[in-house]
Amino acid sequence: METPLWMQVRESPGAAAKKAIYQEAIISGCWIFSTVSKKWYTPDEFMASTETVHMHRDKDDGRKFVVKHPLVGLQERIDLLHRTAKEIDEFNKRLHNYYELRRKQTKQPHQR
């Protein structure tokens, strides 16, 4: 005997969308990146995570999750690290130059 429709447990639209993202990652051999939490997930970690896919008018918030190869993500992080190191170096030079100039300016009046 079949379970009546009113007794059947149905998957929520958000859960179905999460499963679709999972399946896309599995098929493509990729991982899932959350643009909100900035975390990388293997497909299985994604399904076990507390990350949720929100549905609005039957459309999931696809911008929240990106399916891509983890090596692409690794390269992006390396590039970010290089940019950050360059910014730190430039800031450090400005800091050094500023205080070196200030030191020279404060010494000049005392040398008279």
From TrEMBL:
- Tell me the superkingdom of the source: Bacteria
Return the protein name. Uncharacterized protein
Q: Which organism is it from?
A: Pedobacter nyackensis
